[in-house]
Each structure stands twice: as C-alpha cells, then as structure tokens.
Write the structure tokens for this entry.
Amino acid sequence: MANAVDTNEVLSENLRDIGLNDDSIRKCLKLLEEKRYTELKSLLRAYRKTLLDNVHLYCERIDCLDFFTYTIEKNGGM
C-alpha cells in the first residue's frame, strides 16, 4: 500500500507543478484510480488550452507594451 501512497504523492506533486489546484488534483487522481483515462485526458487537454490561451494573452500584452515603449522612445521620451 505504501507504493500506492508514494505514487499518489508523486502524481500530486506533478499535477501541482503544472498549476492545478487541489480540487483538480483530487479529480485527476480519482479519474486515474477509476481508470477513466479518456476523461482525464480531456480534463488535461482543457487545462492545457487554458494555459495556452493565457500565454497568447500575455504575449499580446507584451507586444502592446513594447510598441508603447518604442513609441515613447521614438518621440523623445524616456
């Protein structure tokens, strides 16, 4: 049984590292335990999409910030 606990701890840590909250981690572990791999894969894909959407959002913000800074510098500011 210690192996199962160790495995769950490792899996929990991995899921925590990717940014899942405690509720989502519990749900993932339950889906794994119940061998509901298709649902787990869907949950993880949805989370990946959320992360990627955030990356795109922040890239757009960085582009706007860079353009703003460039415009200020070009006009003699800063």
